[in-house]
Design brief:
single chain; alpha/beta; Rossmann fold; four-stranded antiparallel β-sheet; 9 helices; 12 strands; about 30% helix; globular; nucleotide-binding; ABC_transporter-like_CS; P-loop_NTPase; AAA+_ATPase; transport
């Protein structure tokens, strides 16, 4: 797997041609191997943007390029060889084992009804080993814990051998340990990654850059250490945000409170 540059230029999206845009023109460029965090409140347009990036929806305006190629100029199979996505919703496994789920990631590399070969098995073994999944290989996917299922879905995506990996709220509904495991995994993949996150402190710790969205409008793009100011975060999330630095590590950390109400009280 080799990371590629991701270029997003003026993309927007609306449910119909005449409808108001849900995502307004948004642009950014990510160098190969960097991690971009997409942050913003509910309804900000994060999932809409991600759907444009993994070619689920065609943008109303603008383009998405991976390694200089417009993803809509590629076949669906060609796009799936370059971009993989791990979504919040996990489809029913229908009794498949963890290894069989991971094997599905090789589908874009087959033509017609061609069967899997030794090359596929080597890729599957490699990604399952990297994610410590071999002990779970023969387990029914439905019997796995939330964290284990998430690792399997990431392994399936990696089996596509993509250049860009899209992660939609990968820590959602996970306990603290499983959240930490997913975060650790993101930091070791070496791919160009776009990840949507609710946790700003996690974004600061994991991401090279962040894109802030509010009501479908981009509010800023850049390194989290410099972009995420008290004012920007407070305005975007409609809270009082204060950025501190942890004493031991010096890492930035946000604390939040509700804005104080003004005016008469009952």
């Amino acid at each position: 797997m080799k990371a590629a540059e991701l270029e997003v230029a003026g993309v927007s999206w609306a449910p119909t041609k005449s409808a108001e845009s849900v995502l307004h023109p948004t642009s950014f460029r990510i160098a190969p191997g960097r991690v971009l965090g997409v942050v913003g409140p509910n309804g900000a347009g994060k999932s809409t943007l991600l759907r444009l990036l993994y070619r689920f929806q065609r943008p109303k305006t603008g383009h998405v390029r991976v390694g200089g190629q417009d993803i809509w100029a590629l076949s669906a199979r060609g796009a799936a060889r370059r971009i993989a996505a791990v979504l919040q919703e996990q489809a029913s496994a229908f009794g498949l084992t963890a290894r069989e789920i991971v094997r599905l990631g090789r589908t874009p590399h087959h033509s017609g009804f061609a069967a899997s070969g030794a090359g596929d098995d080597a890729v599957i073994d490699r990604v399952m080993g990297a994610l410590s999944l071999h002990p779970l290989a023969d387990r029914d996917f439905g019997t796995l814990s939330g964290g284990e299922r998430q690792r399997v879905m990431v392994a399936r995506a990696l089996a596509q051998e993509p250049q860009v990996l899209i992660l939609d709220e990968p820590t959602n509904h996970l306990d603290v340990r499983n959240q930490l495991e997913v975060v650790s995994l993101i930091q070791t993949l070496g791919l160009t990654i776009v990840v949507s996150l609710h946790d700003l402190n996690m974004a600061i710790g994991v991401c090279d850059d962040v894109l802030v969205l509010k009501d479908g409008h981009p509010q800023g793009f850049g390194p989290p250490q410099t972009l995420l100011s008290d004012g920007l975060v407070s305005d975007t999330f409609r809270v009082d945000a204060r950025r501190d630095h942890l004493a031991r590590s010096g890492a930035a950390h946000f604390s939040f409170s509700l804005p104080k109400k003004t005016g008469p009280t009952l």
